[in-house]
Amino acid sequence: xxxxMLVDEAGQxxxxxxxTEDLNLFDGLSSDSNVLDGCNxxxxxxxxxWKDEGDVTIDSDVIVDNLxxxxxxxxxxxxxxxxxxxxxxxxxxxxxxxxxxxDQSITAKVQFLNxxxxxxxxxxxxxxxxxxxxxxxxxxxxxxxxIKCDLSFTKGLTVRNLKINSTLSGRGSKGxxxxxxxxxxxxxxxxxxxxxSSIVRGRKTFVNAFTADxxxxxxxxxxxxxxxxxxxxxxxxxxxxVYTAPISIFGDLLLRFHDY
Length: 260
Hints:
This protein is largely without helices or strands. The chain has helices at 41-47, 90-95, 131-137, 183-189; strands spanning 35-36, 39-40, 80-83, 86-89, 125-126, 129-130, 177-178, 181-182, 219-220, 223-224. Helices cover 10% and strands 9% of the residues.
């Protein structure tokens, strides 16, 4: 009976005891060696970080393999993170982060290796380009713009309405293509309404009315121009003229030769 411990009485174990099942302690447990399952309880008590306690002050160096913090941490000394042999000053890293959820002033040089999407940004230069000067000189796609200087487009351009008050020229031998039409070639072949005389070669068909102040043509509608009788002029005398239809004369008619 001396070796039996009762569950409802205090007792002392002088030898080695092994519990083969789970042990639940409803009161305190003391050990002269302060060692429980190879762990020094006294050192554990002094260096442990209790997750359910309040503020904790750690006076010694601590090495943590994996650390997850759900609240706030205040460190009075340096914090170093080590990964793959590289040491990182955590305080310096946190102070130099570019935050996405709050306003921030960046005074050092920052380089973004991937795409970056910005809602509102205030900068003086981007890639050594003055943004204010760029905005003043840029051709904006969503605003009406008046261009007062020579402009060269090296790539395709889509414009809804285009008005040119000066000359328009292309790069190279192809000229300017507008909707696939070479304006330089069209300028050489088109009959312009406000650009003096034009020489038209080849057969042309006018679907609608055609008006010209001065027209030099060989034939019109299959009729030789030299055979036409012009009623508005009296200095042209037609030779060998035969009328095959009734005619009406409202003025004088001069006949050089006639048969009765």
